[in-house]
Every structure is written in structure tokens, then in C-alpha cells.
Design goal:
12 strands; two-stranded antiparallel sheet; 10 helices; 4-stranded antiparallel beta sheet
Length: about 425
């Protein structure tokens, strides 16, 4: 029941954010005097509507987004009523059209920023000093996180009843113990522990010295076997190695909370990281398409593949089911930031395409004026329709692929 609640809540959050996107277009267009005839949440048949002034507001039957109808977005629009010629969008200065078209993305960025700031002063943001790479992790003290078992294959999965207890568990080691030596070899860091264990053999007895709550202790256990690539080549071929069944418990906290003022700087830093990550994710989309197809046809789902609204909602459901509300809101932040950036891409039919054309027209008119030639006027959107249809076709196919993969082989964040 909690999973279903999470799915519904996340889907509702997406619908609200997309509706606010359209409200951004609506409010800025009206503020500049442009004529807006329709503002609807959803698509398809009208469920309910009312008219206030010259604008009809309402709810459609398919709650998958929304739309705002601004009269005369292009010179080719033929729905301009007599007397409204001066209020059509394409006649307004380029800076006003830019604000109106960018208002949707700005709304998504604002939602993300506000949510980040709230998290910064409440639940906390990811600690920038927390080790995120193998190199950083190996420099940490060898404070351990116990694993219930040793997975024999080179994979990350939950333990099953068929898996034997880990050597560390059999030796009665505990979470938070700091290992100081293995078979007489001093251990100063987690990297030292890994290196020392790789020098031993599966089935060999290891004598372990540790510190628990400030008190030294010792124990011994028989090392298990697993498959791992070389420490200096994570992409290399996995081979049998000795395993203790422990992971790293970093000495630094995973999250940091801030005061109301300090949260602004933390929000800016986190947003910068998010921007870089979003651009990198967009760049990886073409190379991830084969991985999506593999997932759809029965292969393992790569956790780095794109997800659809369906996949994001499922992950939101998982987060609520596991009481991981921070994950829920981080998903909401990431999705809003991604949508905001995506909508600014200079491609029709997204908002960025209209902005790019507006500034192209402005630059072309300036150049023609400088060389003494007549202004070529506005871009003919009809000539761009074939290219627009190609973008829509590719985008639609990609959307269907991600939705199908999210239904058949979804990404999961928590073991089941």
C-alpha cells in the first residue's frame, strides 16, 4: 500500500510541476499583454473548464502534462481574430518572447532550488567530503560495515538464505569496528585492508585485530571466496580472491545540514553539481539506447540508463515504501532540473527551439541591416516542419522505449 501511495504521490508531483511550467508561460505572456486563450492541465477530452476573461481554464481527461495556448506564437498561426493582430506573440520584442518561452524551464529550476534549500536546512544535502570514488574510499580508516554474507559471484545483490554467513559475521565482528591488523600486517586504511586481503587465499585463516569502542580486541576466521577484478583495474577480468565480508563505513557523514543563510551557498554548490550531471546525462543518452533495448529484451537493466515518468514514479514508490523520503525528494529535484534543461535545447517543438529561432531572426536582421540589405523577415515555420516531425518521431520512439523498459525491467534502488 505504501508503494502505491509513493507512486501516486510522485506522479502527482510531476503533474503539478508540469502544470506550473505552463503557468509560467501563462503569467509572463499575460504580463506582457499577449493573448492567451487556453490553459489546461492534462490532454484529451475536457473534464471540466471555466472561462475568465479571454482565457479558458480547465482539466483534461489524460493527466499527462498540460498546455497553454498563446495566440500567434509563429507568423503562420491562423487563429488570430480581428483586432488581436497587435497582441500576437511573434510581434513582441525578442527579449519578451524569450522570457515567456523560458518561463517554463525557469519554473522547473525554481522548484528544484526551493526543494534543495528546504532539504539543506532540514534533512541535509550530500556531504561534499564524503568519499565517492575508489581512491577516496581507500584513504578512509578501515572502519567496517558488516555484510551478512559473501556473494560468490562478481555482482551486487542481496544475500539469500542459500548464502553462507560471512567470515566477518562468523568472527563476531560488528559494524563500526576499526581493523588495525590482519595476520600481523598493520592496517592503516581501508585500502590497506583490501590490499592485505588480496594477498591471502580463500580458505586461509586470518587473525584480525581491531578496536571497538576504544578497546582493542582480536579474533580469527576462515576467509571466503568471491570474484573480483584487480584493485588497480576495476574493468579487468574478475578472478577468485579471498573475502572477509565487510564494506567501508566512512568516517564522514553522508549528509550535512545548514543554517538558513548557509543553505544558500550549499544550494548553489549542489545546483552546480546537478547542472554538470544533467548535461553529462544528456550526452550519454545516445550510447544508452542499446542498453535500454537489452533491458527490454531480457538482459540486465543498467542503472545508468534513462527512465521515463513511469520509471521515476516507480522509484518514488520504492522510496516511500522504504521510508526513504530524501531519495523521493532528490528524484523530484533531479527530474525537474532535467526537464528544465531539456526544454531549453534549441530544437523544435520544445521551448528552446522557439527561443533559438527568435534570436536567429534578430541576429539575421541585424546583419542584413549592416550590409545594406532588406530585412528577410520572419522564419517560415512551415519549412521547418519536416525537421520538427523527425524530432517528434525520435523523441516519441525514445519515450516509448524508456516506458517499455520501465514496465518490463525497471530500475530498483532497494533490494527486494
Amino acid at each position: 500500500m505504501s508503494y502505491l501511495l509513493g507512486v501516486v504521490l510522485f506522479a502527482l508531483a510531476i503533474l503539478i510541476s508540469v502544470s506550473l511550467h505552463e503557468a509560467g508561460h501563462l503569467l509572463t505572456a499575460k504580463a506582457f499583454g499577449m493573448k492567451v486563450t487556453k490553459f489546461f492541465v492534462g490532454f484529451g477530452p475536457t473534464v471540466w473548464s471555466f472561462k475568465k476573461g479571454e482565457t479558458e481554464y480547465g482539466l483534461k481527461g489524460i493527466p499527462l502534462g498540460g498546455f497553454c495556448k498563446i495566440v500567434g506564437m509563429t507568423p503562420q498561426d491562423d487563429d488570430v481574430e480581428p483586432g488581436d493582430e497587435s497582441r500576437v506573440m511573434w510581434r513582441y520584442p525578442v527579449w519578451k518572447r524569450t522570457i515567456v518561452m523560458a518561463a517554463g524551464s525557469i519554473t522547473h529550476f525554481a522548484l528544484a532550488l526551493i526543494t534543495i534549500w528546504i532539504l539543506a536546512v532540514s534533512a541535509g544535502l550530500p556531504n561534499p567530503d564524503f568519499p565517492t570514488t575508489d581512491v577516496q574510499a581507500r584513504q578512509e580508516p578501515a572502519v567496517i560495515q558488516l555484510s551478512p554474507c559473501v556473494v560468490p559471484e562478481n555482482a551486487v545483490r542481496a544475500c539469500t538464505p542459500a548464502d553462507a554467513a560471512s567470515p566477518a559475521a562468523q568472527a563476531q565482528l560488528r559494524n563500526g569496528d576499526r581493523i588495525t591488523s590482519v595476520n600481523g600486517t598493520p592496517i592503516g586504511s581501508y585500502g590497506d585492508l583490501l590490499t592485505t586481503l588480496r594477498g591471502l587465499k580463500p580458505g586461509e585463516t586470518a587473525k584480525i585485530e581491531y578496536v571497538r569502542d576504544g578497546q582493542p580486541g582480536s579474533t580469527s576466521t576462515v576467509l571466503a571466496q568471491t570474484l573480483r577484478p584487480p584493485l588497480d583495474n576495476p574493468s579487468g577480468t574478475a578472478a577468485p580472491v579471498a573475502a572477509l565480508g565487510v564494506g567501508l563505513r566512512p568516517s564522514t557523514p553522508t549528509r550535512v545540514t545548514y543554517g538558513p543563510v548557509g543553505a544558500f551557498g550549499a544550494t548553489a554548490d549542489f545546483t552546480g553539481q546537478l547542472a554538470v550531471g544533467t548535461v553529462q546525462a544528456l550526452q550519454r543518452i545516445p550510447q544508452k539506447i542499446p542498453a535500454l533495448w537489452t533491458a527490454l529484451t531480457g538482459g540486465e537493466r543498467d542503472v545508468d540508463t534513462p527512465i521515463s515518468v513511469v520509471g521515476a514514479s516507480r522509484l518514488g514508490g520504492e522510496a516511500v515504501q522504504n521510508n526513504a523520503w530524501l531519495v523521493f525528494f532528490m528524484l523530484f529535484i533531479s527530474l525537474n532540473f532535467f526537464i528544465g534543461v531539456f526544454n531549453l535545447l534549441p530544437l523544435l517543438p520544445v521551448d528552446g527551439g522557439h527561443i533559438a529561432i527568435a534570436w536567429f531572426e534578430r541576429a539575421r536582421s541585424w546583419i542584413y541591416a549592416r550590409i545594406g540589405r532588406a530585412d528577410p523577415g520572419r522564419v517560415d515555420y512551415l519549412k521547418l516542419m519536416p525537421f520538427t516531425y523527425v524530432v517528434i518521431l525520435i523523441g516519441g520512439a525514445f519515450t516509448l522505449l524508456t516506458i517499455a523498459a520501465d514496465v518490463v525491467n525497471p530500475i530498483t534502488l532497494f533490494s527486494r
